Amino acid sequence: MLTVIMASRNGAGWLKETLDAFAALHPPEGGWKLVVVDNGSTDRTSAVVRGFQQRLPLTALHQARPGKNAALNLALEEAEGDLVVFTDDDVLPDPDWLLQLRQAAADFPDTGVFGGRIDPCWPRPPARWITDLVPLGLVYSLTVEREDGPCDPQWIWGPNMMVRSALLEGGHRFDEEVGPDGTMAYRMGSETTFTKELAAQGARCRHVARARVRHMIRPFQMKRSWILGRAFRAGRGYWEPEPERVAILGVPRHILREVGEAAGRWAVARLRGNARERFRAAWDLNFWRGVLHEAWINRARPKRRADASRPGARDRTALSAGPD
User: Where in the numbering of this chain does the Glycosyltransferase 2-like domain appear (predicted)?
Assistant: First the structure.
């Protein structure tokens, strides 16, 4: 048996489409169960989940405290079987999704963490500036046709990931200080934190391209303001303690320099009237604003998250957002 876990906060508008796709899945050998956690929703999420009780091997839970990772950790208490699959409430899996993940686990018994393919499901064709300028992996958790094979843990993302249950028996759980928390300014990188810690303990990671889901992208997620908000949240996730750096008011000087330089580039692009340059500069500015924000609120706690295995420490394109 394997267990599939997802959390949903105010997802009633798209959750039914996701659960309809889950109801069409081919069951893997040994069977499966689905655990859905309503993470303090104020819409009809719980009612949507209850409507699938007869169509899916479903366990419904409720976590009142906002925070996707708190919801996932609660769901892990209900996990059964040798494999745990994590996903989101806005994905459309191929019918053979679980079959492919189960086969990958059998084919590579020395691998403990698996990531599947994540393709976009656009509500309308994206504008050229999105496809040309936006880092689609970071913003929409897309795998961009990555090939099968071993991979870095930072390339395994929340909409489509699987872990052997044996790796969780020691109590390994998601960091509840990271990831979606009911606000628009959370720190990204929650699944990456989770997978990098497993890799640091010796777990091997692999990308399984044939295990595919499509990630639903809502119209508001194609707006410039939302995309730049992702840059800010990614910057928060990118920050790490740097006690060796020269600091000004507790903030490493190089961060202040990056913010200033990005602001200068944005101002120049605005004067030139170059929309593409202005977006690139605005992305960098919002990213470094996020780094600055995190450095500032942690200036009195320089040893916090000092573990060298922290995700994305030097690769800002690898952090998940995951939408998370």
Answer: 3-129
